[in-house]
Amino acid sequence: MDFSQSKELHEEALDHIVGGVNSPSRAYKAVGGGAPVYMDRARGAYFWDVDGNKYIDYLAAYGPIITGHGHPHIAEAITRAANNGVLYGTPTKLENKFAKMLKEAIPSLEKVRFVNSGTEAVMTTVRVARAYTGRTKIIKFAGCYHGHFDSVLVQAGSGPATLGTPDSAGIPKAVAADVITVPFNDLEAFKTAMDRWGDQIAAVLVEPIVGNFGIVEPHQGFLQAVNDITHDAGALVIYDEVITAFRFTYGSAQQVYNIEPDMTAMGKIIGGGLPIGAYGGRQDIMEQVAPLGPAYQAGTMAGNPASMAAGIACLEVLQQDGVYDRLDKLGARLEKGIVVKAADAGVPISVNRLCGALTVYFGDTKVTNYDQAEESDGEAFAQFFRLMIEQGINLAPSKYEAWFLTTEHTEADIDTTVDAVGNAFKKMAEKF
Ligand code: PMP
What we know:
432 residues; alpha/beta; seven-stranded mixed sheet; four-stranded mixed sheet; 14 helices; binds 4'-deoxy-4'-aminopyridoxal-5'-phosphate; isomerase; porphyrin biosynthesis; PyrdxlP-dep_Trfase_small
């Protein structure tokens, strides 16, 4: 495949945009660097790059594009919004309509507020939890990503009951000291942390189904125990459903397990591809937010008519019969195909899948926490990633990311992908 136009654009970008990209993982650092592929056009399950190469896409823009690229219903809604003026700075009917749709889909949302990104949504839930409880510390789970605000770019200290250290330059140690990180799916570690810090904890921040070191489900009973212990300590449970809302079912991961958090943060899919975030939860907690309460949060672009229209249209597509069954069937076909090809080639992998999202880890370890995901062979993934892109299959450039299916992928796309996986594994087999 010829990537010469992508290479040229990358050279140009390096002169103007820091690192050539507007979000670090796009730089392919985790897969050996070099010029990333510059996409030119997208439709349904496909991408065409600036050199004219065609790809089947499993990046789905890191999750939001569940209905495929350029879905006509969403495109029409965005066009209508564009023609009516994209930003008013006043309330609109669309906000009410969309808020009602979210509340109907996710019953724990007694009140909601729209913002512009997942980061903003999670950041505000943390502030509101602190305002509500009058406490400052939070607990999060290792390897989970909650956006790029200071309090969540924090690593574990030297044990489950130690305070965190900054995971990025520019974050004050004092901020990290208010964050405790424990391994996901490790109830004993969580109990130890809560025994030590429980009365200082404002909130426990949970990805109910992890999406940031692959797709990792909670052990049976884990989420309920986290809820019970957190509430016993007078703290709040925040679910970060930025990836999971509307990904596995029409609604949220909390409904998959029938557990209600106190607050939920969302983003990605609910914007239909346009920038969005939203948070919500129990009414008495949400009443902390300005203009009703003392916790401040605002946004020039928040609730803008274009994002609202795109989000409503996306949810309307997802309400159609059989959407999630279809994603599940396609996901199962893809998983089965990958597993068979790995066995044929003798490449050790393990796959985690839920509905239309899966992760392929290179190694035998079944992944239930971040340490196990870290063991997945990054060099093997990097080789796999390159072999796939050269065959016209676009994956996220990181061993930790999921492959996301859309409603537009076909069985034929899956079979083409599985053949490409087989070719890649055959080439990789020499290594194992
Ligand atoms: N929370 C989770 C679970 C996420 O996966 C992400 C983004 N990958 C965020 C928060 C941050 O969202 P955004 O990139 O829209 O700020």
